[in-house]
Structure formats: C-alpha cells, structure tokens
Write a structure and sequence with these properties.
Pfam families: Galactosyl_T. The protein has a single domain (2-248), classed as Spore Coat Polysaccharide Biosynthesis Protein SpsA, Chain A (Alpha-Beta Complex), CATH 3.90.550. The protein contains eight helices and ten strands. The chain has helices at 9-17, 44-57, 72-86, 104-114, 167-175, 185-196, 222-226, 236-246, and strands at 2-3, 34-38, 60-66, 92-96, 100-102, 123-128, 156-165, 201-202, 213-214, 230-232. It is globular, with a radius of gyration of 18 Å. Bound molecules: 2-acetamido-2-deoxy-beta-D-glucopyranose. 2-acetamido-2-deoxy-beta-D-glucopyranose is lined by residues 65-66, 68, 70-71, 74.
C-alpha cells in the first residue's frame, strides 16, 4: 500500500516500472496499490487524469478524506480498514512511501525466513525505541501535552515502510478506538500496537549488523542495496536509474 497524492503521477509510473511490476518473484503474488485521498482544492483536470490512469492500471484506491500531511494518520487507518476488508487472502501487507527503493526479492526471503510465527501479530521495520514527544511548537513533529500527555512513546516502526501480517490490520483498526488520534501516523500505529501488546520486530541482518529497512539515504552501491529491504530517498528518476540495473538480474 503506497500512500501518494493526486499529482504524484511520475512516482506511480516509476514504481510500476520498477519494484511494483507484476511477476517479479516466481510463485509469489505481490500486489501494489496506490492510496489517494481528496485534494484540499478540487482539481477536475487532475481528477480526470487520475480516473483514466486508474482504468488503465487498476492499481489506484481513492478514499474520501482530505489528503494532507496532518491527515496521514487518518490515511493509515483507512489503509488498515481496507486491508482488513479486502486482503483476507494475503499473508502480509506493507505500507511504503513512494520515494523508496524496495528490494522485493529480499523482502520475500526475509518473511520466508521469519517462519510461521510471523503470520500472526507480526510487524517489522526500522523500530524506534525510547522516542519522546517533541514539545517545541516549531518542530515538525510537535505534539502538545493536551494531545499526548505521556513523556515517552512506545516502540514504533518508522513510517517510511513497514511490513505486517494482515491479521494486524483489523486489530490495529480495533485498537484505534481506544487511542486518541495524533498527527504522527507511525507513532500512532505504535500506540495501537501497545494497546494490543504486540512488539514490533527490528528487521536486521544476522547478528543485527545492519538495518534492513534503511531509513537513511545511501549512495547507490550494488552490493549494499542487494542486502537491504528498503532504502529511503529516491525521486522517480533516481528510482528508474538504479532499478534498471538491479532488478533485471
Ligand atoms: C482531514 O480530513 C477530514 C475529512 O475529510 C477533513 O474534514 C479535515 O479538514 C482534514 N484535515 C486537514 C488538516 O486537512
């Protein structure tokens, strides 16, 4: 599930041509879906383009809420509901931003190695532990004490990308009834996991030497990228450039 906005046409194209393409992994079905809300200002021309694009590719879900940075938590919860309703046959779901390189093969192998225990109450990514709320109102991640009085956040997975067993979508959605919304979607998912008593799993290589969900930007280097599930920070052109060499092999 890839949250995007109406105008991210280039990013959608790049993903369809790279890690989103069908049949990348033999005997494993991977489906990519773009999730879009409504723009704050109606734009009939862009909307018409989107509907045409949707007819052509069948990979766009448009939901009824105003798409804004502040509403990302709503968006994530709508994604959870959608997965709970329509993806019952799938073992895993992933939420991933559009500006990310995804190594689908490595992801599939990683999940395979996790075994049976990862089919239920499982969520993995780049886990952030010991984070505390930012109380400085100029901070991008500012949270007022009214909204969140506690002095710490429970462990959560970075919102850039995380993967989970599909049963968790329904459970997170249920837990959200008891958690006051805050505009930080990844922390919010962490708060729901805390209600459920589910601990997110830090995805690392054997011995924990490197973070498989690389949230930093790395300079492209074939061997490094072959050993990561995600690498952050790709505009559509860069994604196309590195993937033409790494995916085809
Ligand atoms: C969030 O979405 C709701 C429902 O569409 C909308 O009423 C509200 O204005 C949105 N908030 C922001 C900050 O965009």
């Amino acid at each position: 599930m890839i949250p995007v906005t109406l105008k991210d046409t280039e990013a959608r194209t790049a993903i369809r041509r790279t890690w989103g393409q069908d049949g990348l992994i033999p005997r494993v079905t991977v489906l990519h879906l773009f999730v879009i809300g409504q723009p704050a200002q109606r734009d009939p021309v862009l909307q018409e383009h989107l509907e045409r694009e949707s007819k052509e590719y069948g990979d766009i879900i448009q939901m009824d809420f105003v798409d804004s940075y502040h509403n990302l938590t709503i968006k994530t919860m709508m994604i959870m509901n959608w997965i709970a309703t329509y993806c019952r046959g799938a073992w895993y779901a992933m939420k991933i931003d559009a500006d990310i390189f995804l190594n689908v093969r490595y992801l599939v192998d990683y999940l395979h190695d996790q075994g049976e225990s990862s089919r239920k109450d499982y969520i993995s990514g780049s886990v952030i532990s010991d984070a505390v709320p930012h109380r400085d109102s100029f901070n991008k991640w500012y949270i007022s004490e009214d909204l969140y009085p506690d002095t710490w956040y429970p462990p959560y997975v970075s919102g850039a990308a995380y993967v989970f067993s599909t049963d968790l979508a329904r459970k997170i959605s249920w837990a959200s009834r008891f958690v006051q919304p805050i505009p930080l979607e990844d922390v919010y998912v962490g708060l729901c996991l805390h209600v459920l008593g589910v601990k997110p799993i830090y995805a690392t290589t054997f011995l924990g030497l490197s973070n498989l969900f690389e949230v930093r930007r790395l300079k492209y280097e074939r061997c490094t990228f072959a050993k990561r599930i995600i690498v952050n920070g790709f505009n559509p052109q860069n994604l196309l450039r590195i993937c033409t060499c790494s995916i085809s092999s």
